[in-house]
Design goal:
The chain has 134 residues and is mainly beta. Helix content is 10%, strand content 31%. Keywords: Disulfide bond.
Length: 134
């Protein structure tokens, strides 16, 4: 199958052992690692899902806290017990929902922000109404 599209693909990390796929063992607990990876690639945010790698060569237990500027800064293990079906597929995007306090919204509702060259900006409701599906 496909390994990459314009904004998504199987996630690889360049660590001490070179380029390897990222295993979903710890990474799949939340989207923090996907956000770190996507920010490093120039996107605003990211999500992850299950993928299948073409070979069994992984970094395991990749555990980002969100303060990293690159995926390689996230604690991880070089020794691994991952199968090709445990690869991480990441999709990067330019929109996010935040709570009124500015934290990432966890319940699929919140204030819409878009990322641009000026950073994160709130989307104005001037042209939005109850009929919009945006």
């Amino acid at each position: 199958g496909e390994w990459v599209t314009d904004n998504s693909g199987l996630l690889q990390m360049n660590g001490a052992e070179g380029w390897r796929y990222v295993c979903d063992d710890v990474f799949a607990r939340n989207d923090i690692g996907a956000n770190v990876a996507c920010l490093e690639l120039g996107y605003a945010s990211g999500t992850h899902e299950d993928g299948t790698a073409p070979e069994d060569l992984f970094y395991d237990a990749v555990n980002c806290d969100g303060d990293e500027t690159s995926l390689a800064e996230c604690p991880h293990l070089s020794a691994e017990d991952c199968q090709v079906s445990e690869a991480v597929w990441v999709t990067c995007g330019t929109a996010r929902l935040v709570s009124t306090s500015g934290e990432m919204a966890a319940d699929n509702s919140g204030l819409l922000q878009m990322y641009s060259t000026e950073g994160w900006r709130y989307v104005c409701d001037d042209l939005f109404d109850q009929n919009d599906n945006g």
